[in-house]
Amino acid sequence: MQRVTSARVRVAGEVVGGIDRPGLVVLLGITHDDTVAAAGELARKIWGLRILRGERSCSDIGAPLLVISQFTLYGDTRKGRRPSWGAAAPADLAEPLYDTFCTSLEDAGATVARGVFGAQMAVELVNDGPVTVLLER
Question: Can you list the residues of the chain whose pLDDT is less than 50?
Fold first, then answer.
């Protein structure tokens, strides 16, 4: 996830999601053994994580989140010159977990903007700090 002052995502040149004030961009990678429970747990952790300015969390100040599915986070480059995507969950498993993650944030009170699952996306953001944090369960 990245702390940002603003961000947006485009699909085919059209803005499909964005935030126009400080918050977080979450690049969400899903692997084979991820579960609904894990998605909810991760959403709660991110919602309360104190990484915004002044050691505040999104929940403290109602900061928005832009959530983008990104299977490439599970790219394996240990062999050869082409990444292997074998650790990334297939779409039929990953998409419902992506939706569960976003819904869990919304249920907690978050304002959530989304990318389009599986689409070719152009992501624009202004990184604040810069602050980028890798969070694994």
Answer: none
Q: Is the distance from CB of 51 to CB of 58 less than 8 angstroms? A: no
SS3 content of the chain, % helix, strand, coil (to 5): 30, 35, 35
Q: What distance in Å separates the CA atoms of residue 4 and residue 21, rounded to the nearest whole number?
A: 8
Helices 36-48, 91-107: crossing angle, 10 deg rounding: 40
What is the spatial distance between Cα 54 and Cα 30, in angstroms, rounded to a whole number? 30
- As a whole number of angstroms, the distance between CA 106 and CA 100 comes to 10
Active site amino acids: 70-72
pLDDT tens-digit series, residues 2-39: 999 999 999 999 999 999 999 999 999 999 999 999 99
Is CATH 3.10.180.10 the right assignment for the domain spanning 2-130?
no
Quick count: other Cβ atoms within 10 Å of Cβ 1?
20
